[in-house]
Amino acid sequence: MDPKHRDRIAFVRIVSGKFERDMNVFHIQSGRKVRLSSSHKLFGNERETVDVAYPGDIIGLVGHDGFGIGDTLSTDPKIRFDEIPRFTPEVFEYFHNPNTAKFKQFRQGLDQLLLEGVAQAFHLKDTASRVPLLAAVGPLQFEVLQYRLETEYNAETRRESAPFSTVRWLPQGTPTETLDTLSLPTGARLAFDMDSNPVVLFPSEWSLGYFSQNHPNLTLTSLAPPRLHTR
């Protein structure tokens, strides 16, 4: 899009009913009620205000930073759609900010790009480090993320490989006391995803198998649980 524009646009497909500008809807993932006052259609670098839209139409909503891929907007707060599944990450890197004077741009850009789904982020348990641990399906995602941080947010980055090769999600709501009793193989770490769900990061398939063997009653999943009322 035009880099001169400082706003952000969330593209939405109308699935049912009728969209009208200035209508109030519920953002299902956060539970918040929002007013859709700035709706547009885009033609190249030009924008055209949209007052009405029907099923099948795609419109752009300006000024809603909290909207993520797969989120639902509805006048009925009870409506739920299955979330678009995210692929299990296979590569992990730390993204450093070498220029402390640009930390605000770095953090803002990273938060917004993560919301777009460019990569996933994890926070290691029992660490105070502010260096983001990012995860992706392939290294190309990290290259795209680094390029966009530098070109769109003027934020320098330094990448560092992390010693993990796969991740598994633990059951939602697993108590901290239970996490503290888990026996982890060498190199494995407990962490939390962007929605505070507990995960285990493994350095190899062998360590994953070892952990599963020693915790037969613990359910591990390769996909994150659905995100509802998390933002």
- The residue fraction in helices comes out at 10-25%
Q: At the third CATH level, what is the topology name of the largest domain?
A: Alpha-Beta Plaits
Overall body shape: globular
Please identify, by name, the CATH architecture of the largest domain: 2-Layer Sandwich
Order of helices and strands: EEEEEEEEEEHEEHEEHEEH
What's the structural domain tally? Answer: 2
Category from helices, strands and their pairing:
alpha+beta
The largest beta-sheet arranges its strands as: 13-10-12-11-15-16-14
CATH class of the largest domain: Alpha Beta
Largest sheet: 7 strands, antiparallel
Low-confidence regions: none
Q: What is the C-alpha radius of gyration, as a whole number of Å?
A: 20 Å
Report the total helices.
4
Task: Write up this protein.
19% of the residues lie in helices and 29% in strands. It is an alpha+beta fold and 231 residues long. The protein has 2 domains: 9-74, Elongation Factor Tu (Ef-tu), domain 3; 91-214, Peptide chain release factor 3, domain III (Alpha-Beta Plaits, 2-Layer Sandwich), CATH 3.30.70.3280. Strands 13-10-12-11-15-16-14 form a 7-stranded antiparallel sheet. A 4-stranded antiparallel sheet has the order 1-8-5-6, with no helix packed on it. β5 and β6 (46-49) form a beta hairpin. It is globular, with a radius of gyration of 20 Å. The model has no long low-confidence stretch (mean pLDDT 89).
